[in-house]
Amino acid sequence: MSRLTLTLGRVFDIRVGVHASWLFVYVLLAVALANELGAEPRPAALAFGALTALALFASVVAHEFAHALVARRYGVKTSEITLFLFGGVATLENEPPTPQADAAIAIAGPALSGLLACAFFGAAFAIGHAFPGLGHGDAVRLASYVAIANAVLAVFNAIPAYPMDGGRVLRGLLWHRFRDPLAATTIAARVGMGFALAFIVAAVLTAAATQDAFYLWYLLLGTFLLHQGWSSERTMRRIRARDVEVGAAA
């Protein structure tokens, strides 16, 4: 982990840490959630915002652990899980051995997030009906926010924009089709860069039309995905060139 990352501990022999950028996002999210409770006393609202933000980020950690634990079943170790500016990332120590393993590891995160979304939507519904007086209380609100966050995690990560989960599933399918992981990664990275450019354009146009700076967040996300896709494609080109040189020398 980098010097800007604080290690929280180890779970299933995997280091879990938070990058300094996560603390910035956590504070913003906690305050934003507290502001949703305008009628509540400020200390109580801030406490609710802080608790809900923690629950949301716990969902991100659970999402990443789903990747890590499925990866372990295929013999792929995970060195660490880190929360950072754009969410979380599980760092795998080696590549999946087969395209089926690649796709299964990628699908695990959105699948768990989808299950958690259903569970928390069910909890919110059950609490609201079992205790009508709490129908608009903090318990229902908390469960609803966590459910929505997990639904967004599931759907957003399913977008085939490499290196997001959907993009990794696409890579697994292409790997299975062409029997070439380097070519599969290159194609998936290019598709991911296309989605990243679409995010950037949509963010700029929406921010300009609505005069809402919030949409610039998607500009940052699109830029991050564009850089990740470009880096992945460049790495594949280097590996391919090295293999060609080795083959020529042999």
Automatic annotation (TrEMBL):
Signal peptide positions on this chain? none
Listed cofactors: Zn(2+)
Task: Give yes or no: UniProt keyword Electron transport.
Answer: no
Membrane topology according to the record: Multi-pass membrane protein
Q: Which InterPro entries match?
A: Peptidase_M50
Question: Which Gene Ontology terms cover its molecular function?
Answer: metal ion binding; metallopeptidase activity
**Where would you find this protein in the cell?**
Membrane
Question: What are the protein's UniProt keywords?
Answer: Hydrolase, Membrane, Metal-binding, Metalloprotease, Protease, Transmembrane, Transmembrane helix, Zinc
Q: Which Pfam families match?
A: Peptidase_M50
- Residue spans crossing the bilayer: 20-37, 44-62, 104-130, 142-162, 182-208, 214-230
Q: Where is the Peptidase M50 domain?
A: 52-125, 139-198
Query: Biological process GO terms, please?
Result: proteolysis
Any one Gene Ontology cellular component term annotated for this protein: membrane
Q: Describe the family membership recorded for this protein in Swiss-Prot or TrEMBL.
A: Belongs to the peptidase M50B family.
Task: State what protein this is by name.
Answer: Peptidase M50 domain-containing protein
Q: What is the lineage of its organism?
A: Bacteria, Bacillati, Vulcanimicrobiota, Vulcanimicrobiia, Vulcanimicrobiales
